[in-house]
Amino acid sequence: MRFAFADPSAPSLPLHLVEESRLEDFLSVCPAPHRNWLKAQGFTGSLGQLCVLPGEEGQPQGAVFGMGSASARKRGRFHVAAAAPRLPQGDWHLAGDLTPKQAEEAALGWLLAGYRFDRYRPCDRPAQIARLKAPDGIDAARILAIAEGEALTRDLINTPASDMGPDELEDAFMALAGRHDAEARAIRGEELIAQNFPLIHAVGRASPRAPRLLDMRWGQSGPSLTLVGKGVCFDTGGLNLKPGSSMGLMKKDMGGAATVLGLAHMIMTLNLPIRLRVLVPAVENAVSGNSFRPQDILKSRKGLTVEVNNTDAEGRLVLADALALADEERPDLIVSMATLTGAARVAVGPDLAPFYCDDDARAHALALAGTRVADPVWRMPFWDPYEPMIEPGIADLDNAPSGGMAGSITAALFLRRFVSDSRSYLHFDIYGWQPKDAPARPRGGVGQGARALLDALPEVLK
Asked: Is the pLDDT of residue 128 over 70?
């Protein structure tokens, strides 16, 4: 395994978690040398402040980490993880009163603070961090499975398109299926036309790396869940070519696929009692004489026709065929995840994962779960009055309505047309990228919405 907790039977040093308002109480019970040392170091308990406590011969005897105030902690998450790379190497345990939620967040954050993407060069951060003993009362195996799934998502997103095209994404997909004894298949190239996936083929046909649909099944009993992840391994924008400033991060345009694969790993590792299906349309939106064109009219798997008014709105096209396939089995829940629109980023920024759902109970359960596991999500509306915006008149649907307003909503409405029961459909319009370093989340690829959905599954699959 990539991550591990410290041996619970081995000796460990305490990391005391102290709020600003409780500092005097803590100092009153400290041994005098430690109390004097903390005062000499100017330790105030402000959020993120760390002070290692020396023993008589200078060796570390423990450490104190400032937890600040409740209002300060609201401005971020995984605060305790900031201590992990700054502590001396060795085994540590958390000392202080933690709720189960706080203990789980601290443990997961600590593990994720050890994530490194060093495929192409040695990382300039420590290769190892201090090890943490799993706090009492947490499900350590579950936390480890979540960390492993998140690391898979990050690795896939961080890998550039030169090494993460449709072939390589298929390899990762099949490796995951093999690891969990799942059934998997791939439909590639011209076979997409023969098996009625015309939109996936149209988007990916311009690339020498053949488009494909990846299909995985796992589990024999329980409610049925189908995850659909956008796998656009690189997006030039097609003939509506993106400017360079917008193309720079397009290796992450398969972030939806990476996220559902990470979530699938969590589900299968934990052996949850569900019937899981994972669908990934894997393509590269490239430019050639064979590119699909603006104002082409394409027929989808479902039979709906689509006028292409922007070849850079390709994600919803490949998802449409995959959603139509998913819907043919009428699973209990279909979830799509995609780095779909810049409009979502304008609306909620990079840190929130907006989602769409027509079922109030499911939406509420998901929102609560996001808060519970520090994976923030935000409900957006399937706003029916905007339906005419995606109806061009010449075809059933418009893939890129003019005007630029409500872009994330109109994209979600477009996708909703390809499922028969919108109350059993969830759509995430994620960013999949951490713009700058934060505790447990280094700059780069990141999963969004997966942990919230995992936590909410007992409720949303009712």
From this structure: no
pTM assigned to the model: 0.97
8 Å CB contact between 350 and 265: no
- Domains contained in the chain, CATH given: 13-138 (3.40.220.10), 143-460 (3.40.630.10)
Q: Name residue 338's beta-bridge partners.
A: 429
142 as an active site residue: the answer is no
The one catalytic residue among 77, 154, 316, 441: 316
pLDDT band of residue 96 (cuts 50, 70, 90) is confident
Joined together, the tokens standing for residue 88 give 């001396």
Position 432 scores a pLDDT of 98
- The average pLDDT across 320-331 equals 98
Q: Which SS3 state, helix, strand or coil, does residue 306 take?
A: strand
Distance, C-alpha 166 to centroid of its chain: 19
Cα angle vertex 269, ends 425, 179, to 5°?
A: 105
Report pLDDT digits (tens) over 170-182. Answer: 999 999 999 999 9
Active-site annotation holds for 316: yes
Catalytic residue among 242, 275, 372, 379: 242
Coil, helix or strand at residue 346: helix
Nearby residues of 231 by Cβ (< 8 Å), 6 or more positions away: 166, 169, 214, 254, 256, 257, 280, 281, 282, 283, 318
Compute, in degrees rounded to 10, the torsion defined by CA atoms 362, 368, 372, 378.
Answer: 90
- 342-368 residue pLDDT tens: 999 999 999 999 999 999 999 999 999
